[in-house]
Amino acid sequence: MIEPFAGMAAMSIAVAAEGRCNKFVINDINTPLLSILEEGIQNPSRLVEQYSSIWKEQFVYTEGTEAHYYYIRDRFNNGQKDAATMLYLLARCVKGAIRYGSAGNFNQSPDKRRNGTSPENLAYNLTRISLLLKDRCVFESCDYRTIIENAHKGDVVYMDPPYQGVCTRRDSRYFSGINHDEFVESLHILNEKKVDYIISYDGSCGDKTYGKDLPATLGLKKLYLNAGLSTQELFNGRNSSTKEALYLSPGLISNGEAPNTQLQLF
Asked: Which pairing describes strands 137-140 and 208-210: parallel, antiparallel, or unpaired?
């Protein structure tokens, strides 16, 4: 299985837990984020130890836990972009959501209601994930097109790229955006190579739609998954459900048969 936009590799973890695949390519262009995955899977004890040191420091920091967060964030933006530092920021920031400024610096604020995942909980989770994936992954941090060019028939590619509705070339919600036309061209390449793939790409909320449909020339099947009530819509006094679009490549839908691969999600 290949994840060109891995994030925290939730799909690879789920597929490994189900025993549906034995080898994984995990890629994300955000190198510090990718380093969390590589270190957490390959050396979980070391990552927990380093994270624990930073996490405990916040409680003895003279100016308080929030000031400690900003201190670590400044240290990260000034070049200390190791896995443990990135993990602490991710665990401690608002909604666990990475945000970047126009200059590329991490600029998300700390969550004032919590202190981040405890080292004990982190150790428990990382140990379980490492047991699933250790020595079964190739880790890359490069442009998604490079990963797609190296895919072969028999692979299954799962793609969850930056959503069109919230992302341009540069958006605070993502380290890097993607160009729609370039993405479509990459999908044509996968079709030509007969590589199976699944894409989570656009969607709708109430009567609003987000993003353009992928072109019919790709021969994809589009499904809608109910993601539940929109928190933002509820805040605005509306009771609207969010539906996320999932696209299946031609090889996964031909003749209504299951794909001839180790991974069968549907």
From this structure: unpaired
What is the CATH architecture of 2-29+142-256? Answer: 3-Layer(aba) Sandwich (3.40)
Q: Are strands 24-27 and 2-3 parallel, antiparallel or unpaired?
A: parallel
- Here the tokens at position 163 are 């959503």
Q: How far apart are the first and last CA of the chain?
A: 15
Amino acid letter at 63? E
% of the chain surpassing 70 pLDDT: 82
Residue pair 187/214 in contact by the 8 Å Cβ criterion: yes
| Per-residue pLDDT reduced to its tens digit, 165-222 | 544 444 444 455 789 899 999 999 999 999 999 999 876 666 666 677 899 999 999 9
pLDDT, position 245 = 85
**How many helices and strands (H and E) does the chain possess?**
10, 8
- pTM of the full predicted structure? 0.85
